[in-house]
Design goal:
This protein is mainly alpha-helical. 72% of the residues lie in helices and 0% in strands.
């Protein structure tokens, strides 16, 4: 064997691969902010998609210190801070949003003043830096995208936490306008398609009376157009690829297109098997589709993996126990449902809203099991004056007369 000849060929191959990667990176950089492909930014996203928010924020804090005048650097911190808070509040289980009933939900969310101030400051910082760049060049596509991204993330926060639908709708529409301007400048800037896709689908899905409530009458929306944009952003986006797939899965689930939603969600859970939410969502979709036994198996797989040290970062087990209980209830396993509602309520990091919801549902199961004393105890907890009150009326109703099933 001619070793020198093979070494030469390997050298040429290495150079070719290296050049190919460099050319590919250069092509990406043409259609996204160059900072989006920075190695430390990508490390932050890897941690973020494994729900290790603190580690992700440490990486992104370093990026912000190195690039203090780049609005995208502050956008990374904003998205990490917002989603860490939403996760802590049990607001990232998409079962909550898969149906329109959440629009009328009276859920109370207690975000600390410090967290809220930090989110507002980061939003203002990213928008101000974007505006500064746009004063110099009104066609700075990266500044337009950074502003769109900040507005879109803040809109999600105020809608999910404060139920501020009118404010969220206005910010979302403004985010969409900025994203449309980005695509006018660079039609291949795929990251910008996410904001438009979300708006297109959401607006088309809202009942007319809700549009009137939030003041977006006259704004156009088209579900299939929205889904198409999200698919393209998922396929070609740099910082919105995963988020676009999350939105795509949610919207498909909302429209009962379960096989498509499941395909998207499985791709996420396979790519990030240590992301507790992606794994949980596979089970949730199976439950909604009516594949209860498969859903139960998936919930148990998630719980089994959660028992392995270090497998998930701060798993919100209450979400899995609650979903499992809901599925068991649907299959008339009342005893199993009662026990898993109780387990959901007993988790130390459970939000007050979900705890009381689980207590109420557990009380209903114990009524069906003719254990009235246990049911009353749980209704009293769900009706307690402190904290979230969204379950209180139903709990007081069943304190007066036992739950008999629907």
């Amino acid at each position: 064997m001619d070793v020198k000849k093979w070494m030469s060929r390997l050298g040429v191959l290495g150079i070719t691969v290296g050049l190919g990667a460099t050319m590919c990176l250069a092509q990406v950089n043409q259609h996204t902010d160059p900072l989006n492909v920075d190695p430390e930014v990508r490390q932050g996203y890897e941690r973020f998609y494994n729900l290790d928010f603190d580690a992700a924020l440490r990486h992104w804090d370093n990026v912000a210190h190195q690039h203090p005048n780049d609005p995208m650097a502050w956008d990374y911190l904003l998205v990490g801070t917002i989603f860490r808070e939403l996760y802590r509040q049990d607001l990232l289980d998409t079962t909550y949003y898969a149906h329109d009933s959440f629009l009328m939900n009276k859920r109370q969310v207690s975000v600390s003043d410090d967290a809220r101030k930090q989110i507002e400051a980061l939003t203002d910082k990213a928008i101000a830096l974007s505006n500064d760049r746009l004063k110099t060049d009104e066609k700075d596509k990266n500044a337009l995208f950074a502003r769109s991204y900040a507005k879109g993330m803040h809109a999600a926060f105020v809608v999910l936490v404060d139920h501020a639908y009118a404010s969220g709708a206005r910010q979302g529409y403004s985010s969409r306008n900025d994203a449309e301007d980005v695509l006018k400048i660079d039609p291949k800037y795929s990251d910008a398609e996410m904001a438009i896709g979300i708006q297109q689908f959401a607006v088309a899905s809202l009942p007319r009376f809700v549009r009137l409530m939030v003041g977006i009458v006259g704004v156009g929306g088209n579900k299939e157009r929205g889904l198409a944009l999200l698919k393209d952003s998922a396929a070609h986006g740099v910082v919105t690829s995963v988020e676009s797939r999350v939105a795509l899965s949610l919207f498909l689930r909302h429209d009962s297109r379960y096989p498509e939603a499941l395909q998207v969600e499985r791709s996420l859970s396979e790519q990030y098997p240590h992301d507790f939410l992606f794994r949980l969502e596979v089970a949730n979709i199976l439950k909604d589709e009516g594949q209860g036994m498969q859903a139960i198996q998936e919930y148990h797989k998630v719980l089994d993996d959660a028992a392995k040290p270090g497998y998930f970062i701060e798993a919100r087990l209450q979400l899995a126990y609650f979903g499992l209980a809901e599925t068991q209830h649907g299959y008339n396993d009342i005893q199993g449902a009662a026990q898993n509602y109780l387990l959901a309520a007993e988790q130390h990091n459970c939000s007050d809203w979900l705890r009381k919801r689980a207590q109420l549902n557990a009380g209903e199961m114990f009524d069906l099991l003719h254990d009235r004393s246990q049911a009353v105890r749980l209704y009293q907890m769900a009706a307690a004056d402190s904290g979230d009150q969204s379950q209180a009326d139903a709990a007081r109703k069943y304190l007066r007369s036992p739950y008999k099933g629907k």
